[in-house]
Amino acid sequence: MMQSKTYSPKEIAAFRGLLQLAAGGNCFSNIKVQDIATAAGIGKGTLYEYFSSKEDILSCTMLYT
Questions:
Q1: Best CA proximity match to 31, nearest among 57, 7, 65, 2
Q2: CATH of the domain at 60
Q3: Into how many domains does the chain fold?
């Protein structure tokens, strides 16, 4: 059985920011990490404290949702 991970509020903000951008019709390849940070209301550097890359944010968002 797979255990569910507990996410920090900043990780969840990043997930919601990415989902908001995607829901707005933005293609993932055109979304920048700065765009995700802005949508999440956190700094770009903070995102890199939690995620190693834009692809990492996407994969974690998919697992979260």
A1: 57
A2: 1.10.10.60
A3: 1
CA atoms within 13 A on the CB side of 58: 12
**Predicted pLDDT of residue 3:** 62
Q: Mind giving me the DSSP string for 32-58?
A: -HHHHHHHHTS-HHHHHHH-SSHHHHH
Would residue 2 count as lying in a domain? no
pTM: 0.88
How far is the C-alpha of 39 from the C-alpha of 42, rounded, in Å?
Answer: 8
| For residues 40-60, average pLDDT | 96
The answer as to whether 51 is a domain residue is: yes
pLDDT in tens, 6-41: 899 999 999 999 999 999 998 999 999 999 999 999
